[in-house]
C-alpha cells in the first residue's frame, strides 16, 4: 500500500511463496550496454535491467554517439565501432557509481574532453581509486576533493600492471576497458576475487583475455563486435526474496532464468549455512554466464547463525544489508566483518542498518567494518529511514514481513534505482 511517493507501508506476512522471473542483472546490463555501444554493429538484448542506474549508462552511451532503441520487449544498441563522439554536455551518471567508474576506462583512451557528473549521493562516493591507475596509463583526470564532477582528458594510453588497494569489480572493469584500447598488455591483480561479468562480457563481444589465479590480463588494441543476448535475472535482486522465503517455515519460492555466476552466488552458500533449503534445478551457460532455476524454502526449525568475513564479505557486499536485516530472526545471529566498503556506498549502509534495526527493537553492535546482530530477537513495526538508499529500503521491507505490526519505509522510491518492480513483487509473494 503506497502512502505517498516517498513512503511505502509493509504489513506483516503469514508466508512467502510463488514463482518469480526477475528483471535483468544490473551488473551485466551495465557492461552489455557499454560494450555494445562501443562495438561495431547492432546488438539486441532481452530482459535488460529496468533500473534507473542502467538507464543512466544507456543515456551516457547515447550521448557519446551510440544509437539506443528500447521497447517493452528488447533493447537494441548500435555501436560506435571504437570511436566515441565527445558530448556537448556533461555525461550524467545519475546515482550510478558503476556507470561513472567503468565508463571512465572507455573514455580515457578516446580523444577529447569528457565531464562526468552525478547526483548528490554519487558526488560523495570515492573516485580517486580510478584516477591513480588511469593517470599512470597516461590519461588526465580532474576530481573535486576526490569526488565527482570528474573530467577526463583522453590520450593514447600505456599498458599497466596494477593491484587495486580495495577489491573492486568496477575498478577492474575500468582498467580492462582502458587496456582494450592501448598498446601492450594491461594486468589487474586481485587479492580477493571480484565478480567477473566484465571478463565474460568482453569475451562474448569477441575480445581475448587471459585469466589466472589472482589476475586478469588484456592485450590491446582489440575491437568488439555486436551480440544478441538474454540478460539473466538479477541474483542481487533475488536476494531480498530469498531472504524473505528463509523467514517462513512453510515457504516455497521459485526463481526462473536466474543468473548464477559463481562470483555472485555466495548468497546461496550463506543461506545454506543458515539452514535454508536451496535447490538448483536447470543449469545452463549463456554467453559464458551460468543461468538456472532456483527453489528456496525455509527450514522448519528456523534459521541458524553464520559469520560473513574476508573474501565472502567482498563478494556479498550488495547482499549484506538484507542479511543483517534478517539477523534477529536467526537462532544464533549474523556476524559481518571486513565490509568497510559498505560505508561508502549510496549511503553508510552499516550505520543505517544499525539505526533501523534498533528502530525495530533489535539489539545490534556496530563496528567500523561490520556489525553483530544477535539472534533470537523479535522485531516490531517502525518507521524506517532508507537514507535514499535502494538496498536499505528493500532490506528492511523484508525484515518488516516478520515484524509485529506495520512498518513504514521512508525513501521507498529509491528502490527504482535498481529494482522498480520490487514492492509489487513483494506483495505478490507475501501471503497476508
Descriptive report:
The protein has helices at 26-38, 52-63, 97-108, 128-137, 169-179, 197-204, 235-245, 266-274, 310-315, 320-326, 349-359, 390-400, 422-429; strands at residues 2-4, 7-10, 15-20, 42-46, 67-70, 75-78, 91-92, 113-117, 140-144, 147-153, 161-162, 184-189, 209-212, 215-220, 228-230, 252-259, 277-286, 289-297, 305-308, 333-336, 365-367, 370-373, 383-385, 407-410, 430-431. With 432 residues, the chain is of the alpha+beta class. The chain is built from 13 helices and 25 strands. The longest helix is centred in the N-terminal third of the chain and has 13 residues, at 26-38. The protein has two domains: 2-24 and 232-431, Enolpyruvate transferase domain (UDP-n-acetylglucosamine1-carboxyvinyl-transferase, Chain, Alpha-beta prism); 26-229, UDP-n-acetylglucosamine1-carboxyvinyl-transferase, Chain, CATH 3.65.10.
The percentage of residues in β strands lies in 25-35%
Helical run tally: 13
Structure class:
alpha+beta
Strand count, sense and closure of the main sheet?
5 strands, mixed
